[in-house]
């Protein structure tokens, strides 16, 4: 465990294991978990389905993937779509987390550390 020097006037306290257990069982923490899970689980499942679709089409329909479309073949466009959706999901998550998750986590941190 690293020791971080306290800032002048910093009155943070070190929570005990009992504090962490109590917080984990609190409605405030359960709401934070639900907020996190309501975004991450559906988006993770959707991206996994999209990725499996790409792999299955590439494996079982190579002729479809090789068809030209807008100057490139369909496979290249779908592959680029994988990258695009990764960046899009990351951006949307950051916006969602900053708006919904971080304020709740900060409130819990403030309550735990004083």
Helix content: over 70%
| Helix-strand string | HHHEEH
Number of separate domains: 1
Overall morphology:
elongated
**Overall pLDDT score:** 86
**Widest β-sheet, arrangement of strands:** 1-2
Question: How many strands in all?
Answer: 2
- Distance N terminus to C terminus? 20 Å
Instruction: List low-pLDDT spans.
Output: none
User: Taking Cα atoms only, what radius of gyration do you get, to the nearest Å?
Assistant: 22 Å
Largest sheet: 2 strands, antiparallel
Estimate the strand proportion: under 5%
Which structural category fits the helices and strands?
Answer: mainly alpha
Structure in words:
With 114 residues, the protein is mostly helical. The chain has one domain. The protein is 76% helix and 4% strand. The protein contains four helices and two strands. The protein has a two-stranded antiparallel ribbon with strand order 1-2. Strand 1 and strand 2 (72-73) form a beta hairpin. The protein is elongated, with a radius of gyration of 22 Å. The mean pLDDT is 86. This is DUF485 domain-containing protein. It comes from Corynebacterium breve. Pfam families: DUF485.
């Amino acid at each position: 465990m690293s020791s971080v020097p306290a800032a002048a006037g910093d009155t943070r306290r070190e929570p005990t294991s009992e504090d962490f257990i109590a917080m984990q069982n609190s409605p405030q923490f359960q709401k934070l978990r639900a907020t996190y899970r309501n975004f991450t689980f559906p988006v993770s499942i959707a991206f996994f389905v999209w990725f499996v679709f790409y792999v299955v089409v590439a494996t079982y329909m190579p002729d479809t993937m090789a068809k030209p479309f807008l100057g490139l073949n369909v496979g290249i466009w779908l592959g680029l779509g994988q990258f695009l959706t990764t960046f899009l999901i990351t951006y949307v998550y950051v916006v969602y987390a900053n708006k919904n998750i971080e304020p709740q986590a900060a409130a819990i941190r403030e309550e735990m550390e004083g």
